């Protein structure tokens, strides 16, 4: 039978491994030898068995100690706090607890407990409380994020986060993997309110800050990545999210870093990379606190980011060169057409005039309509198109306004 740790009303309950008559009698004999004690008051515990509760521990005379009662009340508040979570929430929390408990067994400086047991008097409870030397951490898992609940959840998370900090805890948040939403073609990440609220700032994020700050001196930075940036001169603030999911044999953490950008809905951030996965035991390596990442992988990703950026700059420069080359070819073709176009003296038409004016002064559709209605149909006459062209050449006109001034002055 496991250690008695779960409090319900006045009794400390232990779920049985067996409810056979022999098993019950065996547990009772062990209890009579004072083998089982209350983890809070050290009082002797007896073993009871009933049809409703099954096999369970109890204080003698069913008088639970005050500490047991506190834990019981705290557990109920904790369950109330997590009513919105999915069933996977408890599974993930238990896996994390087991993983950290293994670390605690080999490291005497690590103390692990469920949040409501670590301090029953808390207003808000982390799922797990961890103490490493003189530093205390709150570990919480978020599941079931949806548009209808997101804003309320985000405010609840902010309240909990701030409360944990006030209590001297360093908050660590994990979010269920299925909540991640990225747009690779735009190199962007769409965030829920809750995701933005639990994003962290670590030493690795600060290293990314310095890299991005240097490269953002280039005004084309976001355009290289096809990212729809909202501002040009933004504060450099790389942050992290830790997505969590379980496989058949272990718990996996996906480390995702992003550059915070648009903080009005829909929240959007610049995606630095696709993130990387590490085992949970690796994420919570204890080295002056929890690492939560792999520095070697982050260094590789920063180097890779630089390589991609250099390549995108080259591609952009080549694109500009090709566009400029096409533009020069187009201008050359227009010039050749302008210089080679020589309408016959006898059959010079208004259509010929339009072509010549378009090449010489860039005659627009609107200007063409004004030329026709105001001048050609009245004072000039359609048959005098050649005369208009001769005036353009004579006065070296380079704009429609210059041509109009001449036509108005001459009153043809």
From TrEMBL:
Domain Competence protein CoiA-like N-terminal: 25-66
UniProt-recorded name of the protein: Competence protein CoiA-like family
Organism: Robertmurraya kyonggiensis
Coiled-coil annotated residue ranges, if any: 306-337
Top-level taxon in the UniProt lineage: Bacteria
UniProt keywords, alphabetically: Coiled coil
Pfam families hit by this protein: CoiA_N (PF25164)
């Amino acid at each position: 039978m496991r250690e008695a740790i779960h409090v319900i009303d006045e009794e400390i309950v232990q779920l049985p491994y067996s409810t056979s008559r022999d098993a019950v009698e065996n547990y009772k004999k062990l209890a009579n030898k004072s083998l089982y004690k209350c983890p809070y008051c050290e009082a002797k515990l007896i073993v009871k068995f009933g049809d409703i509760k099954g096999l369970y521990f109890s204080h003698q005379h069913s008088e639970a100690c005050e500490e047991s009662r506190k834990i019981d009340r705290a557990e109920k508040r904790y369950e109330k706090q997590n009513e919105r979570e999915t069933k996977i929430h408890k599974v993930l929390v238990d896996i994390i607890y087991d993983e950290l408990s293994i670390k605690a067994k080999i490291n005497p400086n690590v103390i692990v407990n469920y949040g409501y047991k670590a301090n029953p008097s808390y207003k808000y409870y982390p799922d797990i409380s961890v103490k490493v030397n003189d530093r205390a951490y709150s570990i919480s898992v978020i599941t079931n994020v949806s548009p209808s609940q997101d804003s309320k959840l985000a405010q609840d998370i902010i309240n909990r986060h701030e409360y944990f900090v006030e209590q001297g805890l360093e908050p660590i948040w994990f979010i269920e993997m299925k909540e991640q939403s990225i747009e690779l073609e735009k190199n962007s990440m769409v965030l829920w309110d809750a995701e933005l609220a639990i994003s962290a700032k670590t030493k690795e994020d600060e290293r990314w800050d310095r890299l991005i700050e240097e490269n953002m001196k280039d005004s084309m930075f976001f355009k290289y990545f096809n990212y729809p940036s909202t501002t040009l001169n933004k504060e450099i603030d790389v942050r992290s999210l830790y997505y969590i999911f379980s496989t058949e044999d272990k718990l996996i953490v996906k480390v995702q870093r992003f550059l915070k950008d648009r903080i009005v809905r829909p929240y959007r951030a610049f995606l630095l990379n696709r993130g990387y996965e590490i085992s949970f035991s690796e994420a919570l390596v204890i080295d002056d606190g929890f690492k939560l990442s792999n520095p070697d992988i982050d260094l590789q990703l920063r180097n890779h980011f630089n390589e991609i950026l250099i390549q995108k700059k080259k591609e952009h420069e080549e694109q500009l060169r090709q566009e400029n080359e096409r533009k020069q070819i187009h201008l050359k073709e227009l010039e050749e057409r302008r210089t080679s176009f020589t309408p016959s003296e006898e059959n010079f038409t208004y259509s010929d005039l339009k072509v010549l004016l378009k090449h010489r002064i860039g005659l627009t559709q609107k200007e063409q309509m004004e030329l026709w209605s105001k001048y050609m149909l009245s004072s000039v006459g359609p048959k005098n198109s050649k005369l208009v062209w001769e005036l353009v050449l004579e006065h070296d006109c380079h704009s429609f306004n210059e041509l109009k001034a001449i036509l108005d002055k001459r009153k043809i």
